[in-house]
Design a protein that fits this description.
The protein is α+β, with helices and mostly antiparallel strands. It is built from seven helices and six strands. A hairpin with a 4-residue loop joins strand 5 and strand 6.
Length: about 180
């Protein structure tokens, strides 16, 4: 079955249950509207963080992964992209529960739909937001790690890029 699919990884700060609020707000939105583009599944998975440099869960102690699926006709009806924007705006505006609340580094799942979205407080194109804000430091670390591995193997960064990159990675990592 073909589907449309969005998924975001939301950090869960210690002693915070806002991820449950985001899950139920999305569910409420689905049932509040008589006609909604969420026509299949809303899934919530709780997982740990990750030590993988470019993983959406990197740096988190715990992560709420929330995924929404629908059927292709939601796109044909012209509702899906607008729905994704409304939902991602909510998910990306969560803050921690500190005395001076900081915006959580909510990130999309790399392999799901997100490229048409505007992200962050400055409403940037998704690729620009990931490159300049959400993954700014990890990209530097990732490239340094690739260079180190390449040197050990007798490869240059250009060789690694030519073999392993694609248009998306070129725009976000190598731009």
């Amino acid at each position: 079955m073909r589907v449309r699919d969005m998924e975001f990884q939301i950090p869960i700060p210690d002693q915070d249950e806002s991820f449950l609020k985001s899950f139920f707000r999305t569910l409420t939105r689905k049932y509040r509207d008589e006609y909604t583009p969420m026509r299949l599944t809303l899934e919530l998975r709780i997982m740990g963080g990750s030590d993988r440099i470019m993983a959406p869960q990197a740096g988190n102690n715990h992560t709420a992964s929330i995924e929404v699926l629908t059927v292709p006709d939601a796109q044909q009806d012209g509702e899906w992209v607008a729905f994704m924007q409304v939902v991602s705006d909510k998910w990306m505006n969560y803050k921690d529960n500190s005395k001076t609340p900081m915006r959580l580094n909510t990130r999309p799942h790399w392999a799901k739909e997100w490229e048409t979205l505007k992200m962050g407080p400055r409403n940037l194109d998704a690729r620009q937001y990931l490159r300049t804000e959400s993954y700014r430091d990890p990209i530097v670390n990732f490239k340094q790690t690739l260079e180190r591995i390449g040197m050990e193997q007798g490869w240059k960064m250009e060789d690694i890029r030519a073999r392993f990159s694609n248009e998306l990675w070129d725009a976000i990592v190598y731009s």
